Amino acid sequence: MQRFDFSHAPFDALSPDERLRLEACADILFYADEQTVLAPDAPVTALYVVIKGVVREMAGDEVVALYRAQDGFDARATAAGQTRHRFIVQEEALLYSLPRAEVLALTESNPRFGAYFYASVSEKLGRLAQGAGQRELQTLLAATVRDAGGRQPVFVDDGASLRDAAAAMKEHKSKSVLLRGDGRLGILTTTDFRDIVLNGVPSDAPAAEYCQYELLTIDIDDFLFNALLLMTRRNLRRLVVTERGEPVAMLAQVDVLSYFSNHSHLIAQRLERAATLDELTEVAEQIPRLVRILSGHGVKALQLGRLVQSLNARLFARAWRLIAPPELAANSCLLVLGSEGRGEQILKTDQDNALLLRDGAPWPQLEASCQAFSAALSRFGYPPCPGNIMLSHPDWRFSGAELRDHLHRWVHSPDGDALMRLAIFVDAEAVCGDAALLEDAQNYLRATLRDDAGFFSRFARAIEQFDTPLGLFSHLQTRERDGRAALDLKKGGIFPLVHGIRALALEYGVSENNSQQRLQALAAQGRLERGLAEDAGEALSYLMQLRLEQGLERMSAGKAADNLLEPDKLSSLERDLLKDALGVVKRFKTQLRHHYRLGSF
């Protein structure tokens, strides 16, 4: 008999012994065209997996899904023992028949396999949307700090001199030394010694006086990706690794870089060192390649969004410092807006930025600097925004007083344009300059919004702008777009989740601007039922992952990335997860309709 392919979810979650059990009882059946495999009036005795051919799922006279090679059907029916739909062969088919009793036994012995059949939406999306599960245990995302090794730390006593510290570093061939005493842990590095020598400090001076004591640490069992992210954000060369709170190793750049083939660290460092816009352009071209590599190694959209946000912030900040006169840079705050501000934009898209200016301060070469900055971003691969949401447009650069006037008008005269501008601003993140200018504006907005329930209802109403493409019987609703039967992931799923979360965060004073962090804060405050918050977070992650994957696929074919997804190109598991995710979107919108009384408007 043809060997069963266990490389596809959820069968990849089975152990070798479990695979042998399932393969031993599997049967291969042939079905002719238009022959019925499953029907509502017959018990379900098996789970089917297509070897070749096509099977259609029917709800009445409507085709709700097509199943091709490697697709399985019907998990829900297998668990329940009956089906509401009819499954008919469209093109003569060979099917694996997996006995229901054996499948159910495996769901009890293997929780991850069982999640495919029984888990809650958040558990299914969280466990299964990651793809091949066991294959990813060796990916970059699954690697821990322990896996990367590192060096044993070198310690010196609290009373050691600088000479003692240098001798210890030489003896152990280390680039750093740890000093502990009085309940503190400090570090001296080769860079510190360079400055010490240049400043003429005597070699017998106490080492404790020249240590850095505010150390950044990472737990030995934390993900290596988190170490990478921390190093990238803080421009660090090494981290102290702890185990149960005690320092056990030093993790250097080289240890991390051995795991990451495109060295995002080096990208961050090159951004900092770039002396011209030409150099920045070269480095900016490496970011999409990094995304492709990390995505190919199993790093998910959620983590990639955080990393890309960090790298883009460095790119934009360095460009602004190269372009703007020092006096302008010191008296301004460069903002990124929308998905870039939320840390949820992975592939390059239109510019969304603004500039806040200090009241009463000089702003030399303001117009020229703003135009040059937008032109530079275009060179980096970020095209101008069709809606002119860029600091090169006068509407998106303002003094503190002007922004307060805008915020007052957006809140108290909330037409469609005002609400759109406010939504864009609410996600703002400072990337360069005086962040206190943004904090002042945010504090003013919170004070202006206090106890204005009518405003929040108008603000939230945008979730009704687009229908969720999920019909009766969980049928995915597609439209013919550019010759493709596709649905719009952004309009139908991502936007209503993001905007609904944003509305709740604005109402309840949540300061975070990332959607996942907002959900966590809302659940912690008791403003959103925890189960719904978890489901919404997992649904958003999965929809973003699908958008990333189809975007990378289009880009590899020389096409522009877009938000359109063709469900027929998904596996049956992926389609099931998509239906679950869109079901969460509908449930979340229903909750917001009730909360904001949207039916009254």
Describe the structure.
This protein has four domains: about 10-115, Jelly Rolls, CATH 2.60.120; about 145-255, CBS-domain (Roll); about 280-400 and about 420-435, 2-Layer Sandwich (Beta Polymerase, domain 2), CATH 3.30.460; about 460-475 and about 485-600. The longest helix has 27 residues, at about 530-555. The protein starts with 15 loop residues before the first helix and ends in a 5-residue tail after the last helix. It is globular, with a radius of gyration of 28 Å. With about 600 residues, it is of the alpha+beta class. Helix content is about 45%, strand content about 15%. Helix 9 runs parallel beside helix 11 (about 265-275), helix 9 runs parallel beside helix 14 (about 300-325) and helix 22 (about 490-505) packs parallel to helix 25 (about 570-595).
Content of β-strand: 15-25%
Radius of gyration from CA coordinates: 28 Å
- CATH architectural group of the largest domain: 2-Layer Sandwich
CATH fold name of the largest domain, please? Beta Polymerase, domain 2
Structural class: alpha+beta
How do the helices and strands line up, and which of them pair or pack?
Blueprint lengths: L15 H10 L1 E5 L4 E3 L7 E14 L2 E6 L4 E2 L1 H6 L5 E14 H10 L1 H8 L2 H8 L16 H4 L6 E3 L4 H11 L3 E6 L2 E6 H9 L18 E3 L4 H11 L3 E6 L2 E7 H5 L6 H10 L3 H8 L1 H11 L4 H23 L2 H5 L1 E5 L1 H5 L10 E5 L8 H14 L17 E3 H13 L3 H11 L2 E5 L2 H14 L3 H8 L18 E3 L2 E5 H19 L7 H10 L5 H27 L7 E2 L6 H25 L5
Parallel strand pairs: 7-8, 10-11, 14-15
Antiparallel strand pairs: 1-6, 2-6, 3-4, 3-5, 3-6, 8-9, 11-12, 13-14, 13-16, 17-18, 18-19
Helix pairs in contact: 3-4, 4-5, 5-24, 5-25, 9-11, 9-14, 11-14, 13-14, 14-17, 18-19, 18-20, 21-22, 22-23, 22-24, 22-25, 23-24, 24-25
